[in-house]
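Deliverable D5.2: sample structural annotation.
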Amino acid sequence: MFFCASLVVAFGVILIFSDSWGGIRRAIDVMVSVPAFLTKFYHIAEEEVLYRFLLYYSLNRLLGRGTAFFCTVTLFSLMHHTNSFYYPFAVAPAGIALSIVSMATGSILAPILLHVIFNAS
């Protein structure tokens, strides 16, 4: 019953807002297209290699684990700034989680996978 009702609502929305369906369809096509996915994956891998691998391990050798963690999370958050002042504060928990996963596993692959899942959601 609920499934039938949701189909009726979905078709009603498509019929009422048919002009916006093309824009929604193009947005879905861009999100799931292979070149767009590969580009996004490349940028995620690039960020993770830069922050979790090069920066963290270099600072860890020079300044210690705590300072390396703090600097990595801070720079990762500041790199994600937009026109909003608050966006780096919203990204900081993700940076903390990615750094903890990287430190716990000792691998760069786990944070890359977590970052892909986080950006896809």
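Annotation notes: The longest helix spans residues 34-63. The two ends are 29 Å apart (CA to CA).
The annotation will be released with the project's public dataset once the embargo ends.
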